[in-house]
Design brief:
The structure holds three protein chains of three kinds.
Chain A: H1 7-23, H2 26-33, H3 41-50, H4 68-81, H5 87-101, H6 104-115, E1 121-124, E2 140-142, E3 145-154, E4 161-167, E5 177-183, E6 189-194, E7 203-212, E8 214-216, H7 222-258, E9 260-261, E10 264-265, H8 270-298, H9 304-330, H10 341-354, H11 358-374
Parallel strand pairs in A: 1-4
Antiparallel strand pairs in A: 2-3, 3-7, 4-5, 5-8, 6-7, 9-10
Helix pairs in contact in A: 1-4, 4-7, 5-6, 5-7, 7-8, 7-9, 7-10, 8-9, 9-10, 9-11
Chain B: H1 11-21, H2 23-27, H3 36-52, H4 58-63, H5 76-90, H6 108-118, H7 129-142, H8 145-156, E1 162-165, E2 181-185, E3 188-199, E4 206-212, E5 223-229, E6 235-240, E7 249-260, E8 264-265, H9 271-283, H10 294-303, E9 305-306, E10 309-310, H11 315-343, H12 355-374, H13 391-402, H14 409-420
Parallel strand pairs in B: 1-4
Antiparallel strand pairs in B: 2-3, 3-7, 4-5, 5-8, 6-7, 9-10
Helix pairs in contact in B: 3-6, 6-11, 7-8, 7-9, 10-11, 10-12, 11-12, 12-13
Chain C: H1 7-23, H2 29-34, H3 47-60, H4 79-89, H5 100-113, H6 116-127, E1 133-136, E2 152-156, E3 159-170, E4 177-183, E5 194-200, E6 206-210, E7 220-231, E8 235-236, H7 242-254, H8 265-274, E9 276-277, E10 280-281, H9 286-314, H10 326-345, H11 361-372, H12 379-390
Parallel strand pairs in C: 1-4
Antiparallel strand pairs in C: 2-3, 3-7, 4-5, 5-8, 6-7, 9-10
Helix pairs in contact in C: 1-4, 4-9, 5-6, 5-7, 8-9, 8-10, 9-10, 10-11
Classes of the chains: A alpha+beta, B alpha+beta, C alpha+beta.
Chain lengths: 375, 443, 414
């Protein structure tokens, strides 16, 4: 058995951590947080330069040709650094959709541009409130022309292209949904930025008005492709969440060691100590579930749907728990804009919703376990 | 009364049953009715509120929940001052204070009834709560008669706003660890240092200040309390930007600020005992409205359509709602038990201390779950229809402060364990150590 | 990353599997598989006898205490081989329960501190299950604070004379030997006046009384010592060094790797999969699913945490500290799981025993669960361990650290 990352992968992690510590300090994150830039362009370029954007993209499409395990390693570091860049939209959603369903031409057009940092991509799935479901897709595609509104679209305001879920049938089945690729810089698209919980990651509303689009994957296959994309993204996001949990735990631990009250380190009070121990427990459970997700993702195992849902739930809970109690350990200072705690609190709660809510993934997990047991 | 021995095990039936059946017994049975005096008082209060309240703000005030007490068209301080002044003129300000200091000499239960009748307009008193609840009582207990007559009526009428200057960057839960120095120079004290988490310092006229006058004795023994004019030279107020983006608190810097010795409250070195008067009042406000998020959540779930029906019909949603509703009812009726004790002229028990501890965490959980129900759109905080204008998002971002301000969850649990359950206090390693020998850094 | 065995591991696994398949007491397999926390007895056989027979058979073939040296009754296996063995042993591993204390705690302590001749004579029968051992540390006045114990050992010639009382001793009633921690000097601070021994449980003056637990069962005992004599050559470690010796024992208790902790989740999932509620199968109810999902990820989190530790062993590395979360998570979880299973049964959930739903499996679990949050380190001690050893937070302030033992207060209030 080898249920760990390899030494090379660990070296990659060290390299990514060092790079992000230098290029993505909390100060740099704050430039985006305070609305002074829509995302950190310099960092994005740097990530491309390091080969991180294309780490799981095959060499023939301009990537590094490593695999998903390497991408998990990078994802964890992105989460730890709270990086203000459209990494998850572009790399976990758009690129994975292309890898799963793109034609050779589509891959040749977009994947090298992703790897080099020239193109930002996203997935336009949601239409208002509610969770991913074929029923909620109202945007229509008729003869390759899209009409409808997507909201919220992560990083929609800075994206160059989007994978769009559209309704192409009315049978009431999953096969009513097809995917399309849209060049957002061409006509027929109107983008409006929306304020959101985590200003370090933009959200937008995109209106498609007689917008020309090319199909991605076969007609009627949209939902099955989306399901695969969401499962993969769930594992990758889980690593970001694990990275964020660890960082929040570390911040809390450090503060508990540095801060004195009543003549003692506050970390010597059991109320504080046990709060931190419980955060460690959540973070550890999440990490182990995520490792299993990583294995399933990297081997394309039949267990992926179940593993992804478990990783998603566990990591979402851990990040919310660690981010929330990191503020609590910091007391009043943790509630200031000046301290970094709230950046993780915002990110944790925003990430909990991005691929559909916790309740939604809970439902999926039980569905999948049940199917497996029946089989 | 007979002893409760085995032979007399049914003593209660022989002695209590006949009394229970009398008219007096029935009257003393549990009920939620006002006594005749209470009913008369309620009637007077209701009529006055009806005739004088700023009705144009009612709708907006009812909708404000934690994290969003902001009025679209008005400054809350201006509107608040106008309402407080009107109340003072009608004799409805600081009801439980003596008349000569601007109050009404009302009983504690009358004060609770007033709060119930004032209803949503009570939210307008936010800028005066620290003054009324903490500064006023401290001045009343320790100020000279002259000072009481000069400052209290204006505090009651809202003409002058007071703030409380206790917390410091290195002294939060451990208030007595504060460092701001006051040194005697002739008849004056000269103050240098920094306070933090001062609500309303930017619009306050006076402040209650605790400072260290002797760093060579153990920390609780070297403190002295003062009050000062916030416009004194050397006082600088800087707003703190909070995690939720709002600015409700301030840092206050003191550079050679001069305070006359006549503005000292209590003896030199007695500041800690004086401050206990103030803090007791902070943690004991009875019948005050604690936000729990439950009414908002119930309404939200009653209207929200999920994929296969109304949220409130979904078993998972119902299960969560039910446990929150039970908690929130528990808090409500705990506070009723306290009110009932007041109504009978008794001293309320310690139950009320659970309020903030329960509601703080619940608010955070409720906000998280409401967003969960909104799905991916729950991330939006603008005036989007999907999120009911970001109501729960604001709640989520503000809720961490509920678990910290006015005593962290951990301090509240200590208080319950120690003062209610009688458990021993934490070991205080700094108790007998001179203040300037206490470590200031953890590593 | 992969879950495959290395070629050597695969070979070892095949050998183990073949031997088990040929030798295990198959007629108990189903019953052992279904046993859960609070319900471990066999219906028509004495589990102790079945267990001893299985252990003996294993020992004869070289499958007992795999990681021990051969000369003491083991196989000299690597840690990963031990894990593979326990995976293959599967439900029959339940039969090792009464030897866990002996193999996991007493044996290693003997191995580290006993004389060579004692090791050669006592360890092999311990490994083969012919002799059962117990551990005598906890006392009424020394629970989480083990070093606060009061049982006295006084030197008389070449012997030590023991007086006092131990509590929570698993299996004392069927044990042949025990390791015993005593106070030999009450005038020095509490950690410094302790000494460790081993003794024959049949020595005169030893009295074992079973404790009736809150669940009704009796897994633990009180053990009373009245002028029990132990020869000095049965001392383990130096006089006054008992605390350090005991750490060897306790470390082993808390770090059993690959040992599956019971969470109750598989039982609950199985139950919900077949349970019909008013308006359909329980597993289709959103409220049920949400709870199940939350527990599912905890159970899988524990499973994969332990796999990470096993993987480290497989590479010959020292596992990280993650494994310390197991008991803390599983203890409160099994309590919640059992409570919820009863909730699903509604009013009939109150019925326990053979007449109840699933023969009272969840009722037994509920009643046994509080014990798991206490034994072998309470939840609070486990959190302290995580906070201090893993996160590096300061220890609790010890007011009794430099105080002579006989000056430490013994009553909370007058």
């Amino acid at each position: 058995m080898n249920f760990d990352f390899s030494d090379d992968q660990k070296q990659l992690r060290d390299q990514a951590r060092k790079f992000l510590a230098e290029k993505c300090s909390p100060k740099a994150v704050r430039v985006v947080l305070d609305g002074k830039a829509p995302y950190d362009k310099e960092l994005w370029k740097g990530l491309a330069g390091m080969g991180f954007l294309g780490v799981a993209i095959p060499e023939e499409f301009g990537g590094a040709g490593a695999g998903h395990l390497e991408l998990c390693v990078i994802a964890e570091e992105m989460g730890r650094a709270n990086a203000p860049v459209p990494f998850s939209s572009t790399v976990y959603l758009a690129a994975e959709a292309l890898l799963i369903a793109g034609s050779d031409a589509q891959k040749k057009k977009w994947l090298p541009a992703i790897a080099s940092g020239e193109a930002i991509g996203t997935l336009a799935l949601f239409e208002g409130k509610g969770n991913p479901s074929p029923k909620t897709i109202k945007l229509t595609a008729t003869n390759g022309v899209l009409n409808g509104v997507k909201k919220p679209v992560a990083d929609g305001a800075i994206a160059d292209f989007a994978v769009v879920a559209a309704r192409t049938g009315s049978s009431g089945r999953e096969s009513d949904v097809s995917l399309f690729l849209v060049d957002l810089k061409a006509g027929g698209v109107e983008v409006k930025s929306l304020t959101n919980l985590d200003p370090t990651r933009g959200q937008a509303e995109i209106t498609f008005k007689d917008c020309k689009a090319e199909p991605l994957g076969a007609a009627g296959e949209g939902w099955s492709i989306l399901t695969q994309v969401l499962d993969r993204a769930a594992v990758l996001c889980a690593f970001e969440q694990v990275g964020g949990s660890d960082r929040a735990l570390e911040m809390g631990r450090d503060y508990a060691l540095d801060r004195i009250a009543f003549g003692r380190q506050i970390g010597s009070f059991q109320a504080v100590k046990h709060m931190l121990a419980d955060m460690y427990v959540s973070a550890t459970l999440a990490r182990s579930n995520s490792y299993y997700g990583a294995w399933a993702l990297s081997t394309n195992a039949a267990e992926l749907p179940e593993a992804a849902a478990a990783a998603r739930i566990s990591a979402t809970q851990a990040f919310q728990h660690c981010a929330k109690n990191n503020i609590q350990v910091h007391g009043g200072m943790g509630f200031t804009w000046e301290f970094d705690c709230h950046m993780y609190y915002r990110r944790a709660n925003a990430m909990a919703l991005g691929l559909g809510s916790l309740s939604y993934w809970e439902d999926r997990l039980i569905d999948r376990m049940r199917k497996k047991n029946a089989a | 009364m007979p002893t409760n021995s085995v032979e007399n095990e049914r003593w209660w039936a022989r002695f209590a049953l006949p009394t229970l059946r009398t008219e007096q017994g029935l009257r003393s049975a549990m009920n939620f009715d006002d006594t005749p005096q209470e009913a008369a008082f309620r009637e007077t209060a209701r009529k006055w509120v009806e005739a004088h309240a700023p009705k144009e703000l009612e709708a907006e005030l009812s909708k404000s929940s934690l994290g969003r007490i902001r009025l679209a068209q008005h400054d809350i301080v201006d509107v608040g001052k106008a309402w407080q002044k009107k109340k003072a003129e009608g004799g409805w300000a600081c009801l439980h204070w003596p008349r000569e200091y601007g109050g009404r000499g009302a009983t504690p239960i009358e004060r609770v009834i007033w709060q119930q009748e004032e209803g949503v307009y009570g939210k307008l008193t936010q800028p005066f709560q620290i003054g009324e609840g903490m500064c006023g009582p401290t001045v009343m207990a320790f100020g000279t008669e002259d000072a009481k007559r000069r400052y209290l009526p204006k505090l009651a009428s809202g003409e002058e706003i007071w703030c409380q200057l206790f917390s410091e960057p290195s002294a939060g839960s451990d208030v007595a660890g504060l460092r701001t120095r006051a040194e005697k120079k002739g008849d004056n004290w000269v103050v240098n240092g920094q306070k933090i988490w001062t609500s309303g310092a930017h619009y306050s006229d006076y402040g209650l200040l605790i400072a260290r006058t002797d760093p060579n004795v153990p920390k609780h023994k070297g403190l002295t309390m003062f009050f000062l004019d916030m416009k004194s030279p050397g006082v600088e107020v800087r707003p703190i930007k909070q995690a939720n983006g709002m600015q409700e608190f301030n840092e206050v810097y003191f550079t050679d600020v001069v305070i006359p010795d006549t503005q000292r409250l209590g003896a030199v070195g007695e500041g800690w005992s004086v401050s206990l008067t103030t803090l007791m009042n902070e943690r004991m406000s009875i019948g005050s409205r604690l936000a729990t998020g439950v009414p908002e959540m119930f309404e939200f779930c009653s209207n929200l359509m999920l994929e296969d029906g109304l949220a409130i019909d979904d078993p998972a949603v119902r299960s969560k709602l039910a446990s929150w509703a039970a908690k929130s009812n528990g808090l409500k009726y705990t506070s009723y038990r306290t009110i009932s004790a007041l109504s009978k002229g008794e001293r309320p028990g310690p139950e009320n201390s659970i309020g903030k501890l329960v509601s703080g965490m619940m608010l955070q959980d409720i906000a998280t779950y409401a967003m969960d129900l909104q799905g991916a759109a729950g991330v939006l905080t603008g005036s989007d229809e999907e999120t009911v204008q970001g109501q729960f998002q604001q709640m989520l971002l503000s809720s961490p402060s509920m678990r910290i301000a006015g005593g962290t969850d951990e301090i509240l649990r200590n208080i319950i364990a120690e003062r209610v359950l009688g458990l021993p206090g934490d070991i205080r390693v700094d108790k007998d150590v001179p203040y300037n020998k206490i470590p200031t850094k953890g590593r | 990353m992969n879950f495959d065995d290395t070629p050597q591991e695969a070979e070892f696994r095949a050998t183990a599997r073949a031997w088990i398949s040929a030798n295990a007491p198959k007629k108990y397999e189903e019953e052992l598989r279904k046993s859960s926390l609070g319900r471990t007895a066999l219906k028509n056989a004495d589990i102790l006898k079945v267990a001893k027979a299985w252990q003996k058979k294993k020992a004869d073939a070289g499958w007992a205490c795999l990681h021990w040296p051969r000369e003491y009754g083991g196989r000299g296996s690597s840690p990963i081989e031990r894990v593979i063995w326990s995976q293959e042993e599967g439900p029959f591993g339940q039969l090792s329960r009464m030897f866990i204390i002996g193999h996991g705690m007493c044996g290693p302590t003997m191995m580290a501190f006993a004389r060579e001749e004692h090791k050669r004579s006592y360890l092999p029968p311990l490994a083969s299950g012919e002799k059962v051992w117990c551990q005598l540390f906890s006392e009424p006045a020394g629970g989480s604070d083990v070093a606060g114990l009061r049982t006295r050992a006084e030197k008389e010639g070449d012997d030590w004379v023991i007086n006092g009382q131990k509590i929570w001793t698993s299996g004392a009633h069927y044990s042949d030997y025990g390791i015993l921690l005593t106070r030999t000097d009450p005038t020095v601070p509490k950690h410094k006046g302790l000494t460790m021994f081993f003794l024959d449980m049949k020595s005169s003056g030893v009295e074992v009384r079973p404790i009736k637990q809150a669940s009704g069962a009796s897994d633990f005992n009180e053990v009373y010592f009245t002028n029990v004599r132990i020869p000095d050559h049965q001392r383990l470690g130096e006089v006054g060094d008992g605390w350090n010796v005991s750490l060897t024992t306790l470390m082993n208790e808390r770090s059993a790797i690959g040992a599956a902790v019971s969470t109750g989740f598989p039982e609950l999932f199985e139950y919900c999969s077949s349970l019909m509620l008013d308006d359909g199968p329980a597993i289709e109810d959103r409220a049920v699913r949400s709870k199940l999902a939350n527990w599912a990820v905890k159970a899988s989190g524990l499973k994969y945490t332990s796999m990470r530790a096993i993987s480290a062993l497989s590479k010959g590395e020292r596992p990280g500290p993650e494994n310390s979360i197991g008991k803390l998570v599983a203890g409160s979880m099994i309590q919640d799981v059992a409570t919820y299973a009863l909730d699903l049964q509604s009013a009939s959930g109150v019925i326990s025993g053979e007449d109840a739903e699933l023969a009272g499996r969840f009722q037994a679990m509920l009643l046994r669960a509080p014990g798991t949050r206490v034994e072998g380190g309470t939840d609070e001690i486990m959190r302290n361990i995580i906070a201090e050893r893993v996160l590096g937070l300061p220890g609790d302030i010890r007011v009794d650290k430099d105080v002579p033992f006989n000056k430490i207060p013994t009553k909370g209030r007058g």
